[in-house]
Amino acid sequence: MHQKFEFEYDQLADGSDLAIDDQELLEAARKATQNAYAPYSNFLVGAAARLSNGQILIGANQESASFPVGVCAERALLNSVGSQFPSLTITTMAISYQPVGKDSKEPISPCGMCRQSLLDFENRYGAPIKIILAGIQGQVMVISSASNLLPFGFDGKVFK
Ligand code: THU
Q1: What φ, ψ does residue 31 adopt, rounded to 5°?
Q2: Considering the entire predicted model, what is its pTM?
Q3: Active-site residue numbers?
Q4: pLDDT over 70 for what percent of the chain?
Q5: What integer is the mean pLDDT of 52-73?
Q6: Among 33, 35, 61, residue to substitute to test ligand 1 (most atoms within 8 Å of Cβ)
Q7: CB-ligand 1 contact for 71 (6 Å cutoff)
Q8: Are 79 and 120 in contact (CB under 8 A)?
Q9: Buried b (16+ CB within 10 A) or exposed e, 76-109
Q10: Which amino acid residue places its CA nearest to atom 5 of ligand 1?
Q11: Strands 90-99, 130-134: parallel, antiparallel or unpaired by DSSP?
């Protein structure tokens, strides 16, 4: 049987088209790029999570002199939320970036490892995480669940 996978997402001309709380979250992600430690790639990534109690937490990529040891903004943030607030869920995550000396006008999308980690959080708490992707300016993409970004992702339920 032939099957098809597709998903819908929203593309907005500008961050100002978001609801106020999501605008605030995107601004927090944009600001979080300033906390990146990225002396090797000069690619500063910021992420901000809205928790189920309304609180915002941020993360930024942290590189290592031993390159593979570095961690992306999204996983720095997810690991921080899981460590500090294990009983809360993440309702929304915004992700932005600033390449040093270059424009940041189009959304970027999380890497494969971060997609797995986002999916792990969705499966762990049984709740979708809305993803907002944007540069420092310009178009914004809104994806209703991180699972859309990793079709047929590996789910830890196989261990149960
Ligand atoms: N990076 C992130 O923080 N998130 C992503 O989704 C993609 C890549 C970081 C990793 C590395 O520090 C730099 O961006 C360049 O790949």
Answers
A1: -65, -35
A2: 0.97
A3: 74
A4: 100
A5: 98
A6: 61
A7: no
A8: no
A9: bbbeebbeebeebbbbbbbbbbbbeeeebeebbe
A10: 110
A11: parallel
Show the domains of the chain with their CATH numbers: 9-149 (3.40.140.10)
- The closest-lying atom of ligand 1 relative to the alpha carbon of residue 63 is 12
**Is pLDDT of 96 > 90?**
yes
Q: Is 149 in the pocket of ligand 1 (CB under 6 A)?
A: no
Residue 98 to residue 141: CA distance in whole angstroms: 17
Q: How confident is the model at residue 113 (pLDDT cuts 50, 70, 90)?
A: very high
